[in-house]
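Re: duplicated header lines in exported structure tokens

Our pipeline writes sequence and tokens for each protein into one text file. With two proteins the header for the second block appears twice in some exports. Here is an export where it did not happen, for reference. First protein block:
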Amino acid sequence: MSQPITIEDIYKLFEKTNEKFEQSRQEYDRRADEAKAEADRRAAEYDRRAAEAKAEADRRAAEAKAEYDRQAAEYDRRAAEAKAEADRRLAQLEKTVANTSRAVDSLTTRWGRFVEELVEPAVIRLFRAKGIDVKETYSRARVKRQGIAMEIDILAVDETEVVLVECKSRLSKDDVNEFLEKLSRFKEAFPHYKNYQAYGAVAGIEIDEGVDRYAYKQGLFVIKPSGETVEIINDSGFEPKLW
């Protein structure tokens, strides 16, 4: 027959249970402390590695920026040198062009005067042969009035007729067109000849291909070199235009 459970037995059982609970709690706390310590260790390790990685990244970024700045400075230096050299060469080129332009203008002027000196002595003879009885010539007739400035290379006149001669070392279509525009304004610039019959003539040592025929169709006399003098090349069927 079993003995009855006393209060003392229950108390002893409670003490044992409580002792086991305390042991479990202490084991839990120990493991929790270990886990926390391990977590702290790992967090510290992560922070350390992160700090090292950031420091390395910052170092590389600083190196990259320094290299970029160096290359940018080198580029700027070379660009400045290239611009300075380009400016120097451009200035030299502009000087050369200006000198060449002056030389060409001077040469063109001399050639133009040579053509005038070749043509002028023959003008009276040439146009009298064409039935235009001019009696005197004027070289480089200039006028400037009411905003109109004009120069005629050779002007051949009589009492009722006047012939304007444009002289070029090389005659181009543009030269012919410019002369036609000049003819259209001639009597406005030289009102003394407003009642005259005005004719136009172009002369050239060289004439671009087809330009002589173009001038012919515009009603202009065309003068070209012939031996030691010059001649009008318009045929007998030519009808000069009056301005």
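Second protein block, exported in the same file:
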Amino acid sequence: MMKSALVVIDVQRDVVANAFLRDEVIVNISGLVDRARKEGVPIFWVQHSDDELVKGSEGWAYVDELRMGDGEPAVHKQFGDSFEGTNLDELLQESGVERLVVCGAQTDACIRSTIHGAFTRGYDVTLVSDAHTTEDMTEWGAPSPDVIIKHTNMYWSFQSAPGRTAKVVTTAEVAFSA
């Protein structure tokens, strides 16, 4: 059986402050975290920092609704792809993980970068369709958040590569033992 891990990306106060369907997405992520803990599935928490999101600041912290558990590693990143310049790949390999279940923010940046980064590194990647979000950047020419999320869910469901699978499932459909 393939060992899975839950990867929670950038659900930080300032990152999701104005996110589309913020509360619903956080409830879904919280449910995934609870299920992963009950099933003994490792959870990896990713936290972004940069000049605007200063490590250690109030806005950099994870939202109050989500709490990291003892022994659940926090991976600190400075790039969109959670693997770049971090020890995430090493931590996953040490844990024997072959499949990632991914949720968090921002859909059009760190989520996309990370699912592609994981896939090219040989992991099977399941994106949880109703557990990722982004903010509205239409004033800069981006599509609306709902369209970004739908498009990401659609195109990820058609990804393929030798010996790897890409899937999109709802929170209710996540099977960590798959």
